[in-house]
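Researcher: We plan to redesign the surface later, but first we want a full-length starting point. Tokens attached.
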């Protein structure tokens, strides 16, 4: 029964073309990793490895969930199936969505960072990443946020030399770091299977909790014009959404947070970033090239790019077209929607812009590239990601954000493509800031032209309607 159930769950969650593509990519990564000779460890790769691990584990807790369809509650969960078989099948589908991400991001680096324990590191990371997303379902928003922050801090402590840390294996402490990863993988996997055994109960608790939270946080738009209501909504609250099976989450979910809390957290993170560079890298006069501050500048830029990506995914996902487009023409509505979203993003970026500018004035040349990225590349890519998602793969969450809105396919996977250009510009900005300036301005110009195009938005509205938006 298990093989048939496993096949059913995988086929209902992933399209056949996507499964074929993932298989090809995995085979390619494995072959290339075996052919490419190990490289010497570098401080840049160690910072990258630790930072990506911290980001992925934190995001798994913050936005994770179980890959369950609405039809599962109506049909699959009512069948006399073995709890063990059902848990294994769902976990394996989660592993395809979550765990393979680890392989894509670390297969090249693992040979230089922890080659002696390559398999143990990758498997443990994949299991932990998969399991945390499942465990998050049974946690309240406050608890998962606190645990996500604690997990990120614990992982990043590997940079400071703490040997018992998930990031320690990438900073020279290979044996204790790998042991920590293995133990963490075992513990979280056991906890994930226990959570899957009561997945229906956890989902109902989350639904009640979410409904109660929404009732308490209603926003009034009485007396506001349609345009004023758009800005009031998007400037007072921020929505973090995950809608992909790669790059962070395995379901379509949106969480609304008050803007002031997000800006406060951004200010604290920017202050920590400034202190890390100033006290850890030392004054600019202490080194010739300033390369000691380079990992922090690149890491912060990549982190901000990921945050902007998750913010962008909620722009269209939660729209109620029948309500929005009866008050304003489509082009007018979407222009103000994007403008308000960009302003809210800039509120988050401002503390990092101030920190980069201060570091640049103090003589840290690498901060200039990070400053350019925050002012041009990230805002431009943010708008383009919204436009891309609306045009290529629109998905609407219709009130039940505890289940997947649709099967994963290649169109939805493509919504992450703009991130590739961002990562390229981030890397180039550290060495050639002028390239980042040109690239960032190009992104802004393209985004501006598309945003002001009435024909483009007319096509988008047609695609949203065809995709089942109501």
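Model: Full-length starting sequence:
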């Amino acid at each position: 029964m298990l093989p048939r159930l496993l096949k059913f769950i995988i086929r209902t969650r992933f399209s056949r073309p996507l499964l074929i593509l993932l298989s090809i990519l995995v085979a390619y990564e494995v072959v290339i990793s075996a052919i490419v000779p190990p490289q010497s460890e570098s401080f840049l790769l160690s910072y990258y490895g630790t930072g990506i691990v911290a980001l992925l584990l934190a995001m798994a807790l913050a936005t994770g969930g179980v890959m369950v369809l609405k039809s599962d509650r109506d049909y699959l969960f009512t069948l006399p199936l073995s709890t063990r078989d059902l848990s294994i099948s769902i976990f394996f589908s989660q592993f395809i969505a979550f765990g393979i991400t680890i392989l894509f991001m670390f297969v090249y680096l693992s040979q230089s960072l922890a080659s002696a324990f390559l398999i143990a590191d990758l498997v443990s990371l994949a299991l932990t990443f998969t399991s945390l997303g499942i465990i998050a379902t049974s946690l309240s928003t406050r608890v998962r946020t606190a645990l996500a922050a604690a997990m990120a801090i614990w992982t990043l402590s590997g940079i400071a030399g703490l040997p018992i840390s998930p990031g320690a294996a990438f900073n020279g402490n290979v044996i204790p770091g790998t042991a920590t990863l293995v133990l963490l993988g075992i513990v979280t996997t056991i906890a994930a299977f226990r959570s899957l055994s009561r997945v229906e109960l956890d989902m109902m608790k989350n639904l009640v909790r979410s409904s109660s939270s929404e009732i308490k946080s209603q926003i009034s738009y009485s007396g506001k014009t349609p345009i004023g209501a758009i800005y009031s909504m998007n400037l007072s609250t921020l929505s973090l959404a995950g809608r992909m099976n790669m790059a962070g989450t395995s379901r379509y979910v949106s969480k609304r947070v008050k803007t002031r809390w997000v800006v406060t957290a951004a200010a604290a993170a920017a202050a920590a970033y400034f202190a890390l560079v100033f006290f850890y890298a030392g004054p600019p006069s202490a080194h010739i090239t300033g390369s000691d501050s380079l990992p922090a500048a690149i890491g912060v830029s990549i982190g901000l790019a990921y945050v902007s990506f998750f913010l962008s995914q909620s722009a269209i996902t939660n729209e109620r077209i029948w309500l929005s487009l009866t008050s304003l023409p489509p082009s007018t509505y979407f222009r103000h929607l994007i403008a308000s979203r960009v302003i809210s993003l800039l509120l988050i970026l401002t503390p990092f812009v101030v920190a980069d500018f201060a570091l640049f004035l103090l003589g840290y040349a690498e901060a200039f590239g990070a400053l350019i990225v925050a002012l041009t590349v990230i805002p431009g890519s943010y708008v383009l990601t919204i436009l891309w998602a609306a045009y290529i793969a629109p998905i609407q969450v219709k009130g039940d954000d505890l289940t997947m809105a649709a099967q994963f396919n290649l169109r939805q996977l493509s919504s992450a493509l703009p991130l590739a250009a961002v990562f390229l510009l981030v890397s180039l900005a550290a060495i050639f800031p002028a390239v980042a300036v040109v690239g960032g301005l190009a992104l802004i110009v393209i985004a501006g032209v598309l945003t002001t195009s009435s024909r483009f938005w007319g096509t988008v509205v047609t695609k949203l309607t065809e995709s089942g938006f109501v």
